[in-house]
Amino acid sequence: MDNLDKLARAIRGLTIAVWCGIGLQVVAYGYSYWNFWRMTDSGTMERSSRPVSSSDAPAGLTDDSNSDFDNDFNARPIRDKIRLASAILLVEMKEVAGVHKALVQEVLKLKPGVRLYYEAGDEYDELSHYPGGGCGDCTLTQHSLVFMMGNPATMRFSTTFEGDRLASLGGMTIDEFRRLAQESLTATPPAKP
Q: Are the C-beta atoms of 87 and 153 separated by less than 8 Å?
């Protein structure tokens, strides 16, 4: 019976250790969830996603065009996208050393005072890629329009096209698009409600 007593004590000790471990895990998860809800309820997490005003940020780090920010940019009609964009790039694909590089062919629109870190001939890294299964002959005829917003200008929307017609924009020609982009620089913005 001595061996059975020792075995029973060992099992009882292991059972207590396992339950203590489970209890510690429950306390750790409980604290984590409690901390998450406390931060959410106090509004601390919401502060990180609100627009930065000039008085909150150090000089030189504010976005000069917060008033132009638009969560529904992708759903806007093309004329609104052109009007709201602070910069629009025309990008062409070229094969260079086995890599499909997106090279800025032309800056179609740049609002005065907006910082744009690209000019004609620069590589636009976000669209460059290694050839893959779904790529096909994208370097031969494909171009992209990159709509940028803010200051400095950052990408908000892009679309590809072949030839001189923009099928994804209702069949508009690239020349008509250039005209609209230039007109948007001189047009007065509509009044905000």
A: yes
Which residues are paired to 147 by β-bridges? 88, 157
How far apart CA 143 and CA 159 sit, in angstroms, is 8
Two tokens, residue 110: 């740049």
Please measure the distance between the N-terminal and C-terminal CA atoms of the chain and give it in whole angstroms. 88
How far, in Å, CA of 127 to CA of 158, rounded?
9
> Domain residue spans in the chain?
2-45, 66-186
The pTM score is 0.57
Determine the 3-state secondary structure of 129 from DSSP.
Answer: strand
78-118 pLDDT tens trace: 888 888 888 898 888 887 787 778 888 889 888 888 888 88
From CA 158, how far away is CA 63, in angstroms rounded?
21
Residue 185 pLDDT > 90, yes or no? no
Indicate the pLDDT class of residue 17, thresholds 50, 70 and 90. Answer: very high
For residue 24, pLDDT beyond 90: yes
SS3 179: helix
Max Cα–Cα distance, the chain, nearest Å: 98
* Edge-first strand listing for the sheet containing 87-96: 99-110, 87-96, 142-149, 154-162, 165-166, 172-173
Whether omega for the bond prior to residue 152 falls within 30 degrees of 0, making it cis, is yes
The total number of residues shown for the chain amounts to: 193
